[in-house]
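User: Once you have settled down, look closely at the record that follows, taking as long as you need, and be ready to discuss the fold:
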Amino acid sequence: MLFLFNLILTIFYLALIVFCCVLFTNAIEHLGNKLKLSSNATGSILAVIGTTLPETLVPLVAILGAKLFLKNLTTGQNIALGGIIGSPFMLLCLALFLVGLEVLILYLFKKRKNLNLEINCKYVLRDLKYFLLAYIPALSCLFISNKSIKAMVVLFLIILYMIYVLRTIIKSKQNFCEESLEELIFARFIKLKKEIITIIFQIVVSLFILVLAIHYFVCEINYFSALFNISPVILSLIITPFATELPECVNSLIWVKNNKDDLALFNINGAVVFQAIIPMSIGIILTPFKYSPIIALNGLFVILSSLIFILSALIYKKINCISLLICGIFYFLFIGYLIFQS
């Protein structure tokens, strides 16, 4: 009976996450339009700032909670490190795979004209170059024990992200073109004097409920992992990032369904740039951040997936759903490796 109750709760929290993402994507598009930002900045900066809150909070809560409540600090650090390393992997392997799969399904059901995503490859490549420029130095800290060198890497990462955000916004202002948008959802029920207040209110409400829903969703995932005796490594590298990366995945799938491919990919790419810098910096400073074969393999698959994406865009000058589906191979290979190891 308890198992069934927890299963129903898990489905409810998942549905609540999807609903919050619908609210959030609707509001963030209106906010981007109000600020005269192109889809590039809206997807890779505004959307990312909101939806990366859960995965940024998870490592902090895991570490600080262990210290505050005098629990096993090593366990907290392992959960944090797994979530930090696992997040870019989920986005560049699983999220891209799901986007590619959705494009293919829509094409087969004649909801799309072709298998290519309607997006400017130049901006996609720019985001991924920033990602690799941050991710490779951050990952190299696994092999470095000197704290001063690690601190210098963290400083480099933060400066790099500030440059990325600044350049994205400047370029976005130059390329802004006002779009026709669906009606703001809260505007149907709430009549405030200024639309911008309604937009911000909808963003705040959706994020507040989203963070709560993800927290309880992760609690349910932990319950099932304990029930079925799932390895802590699998939990920290796969299950927790899966829960915390749901907003980006769902947002991107919603945008692809609405023929807004640029927002979908910019949301994923902007998120991995953020993940390679802010949470990775937290991991470098607050965890031992030491080499292990599983973490190294995870990082290798992330780099290979991003390189396939980059080469596809450079060679064919377009993003085809097949290249996104190939990225998913690394996800399933890694899952297979973890199962075999455990």
Observations:
- The mean pLDDT is 82.
- The first strand starts at residue 116 and ends at 117.
- Residues 59 and 331 are 22 Å apart (CA to CA).
- The chain is about 80% helix and 0% strand.
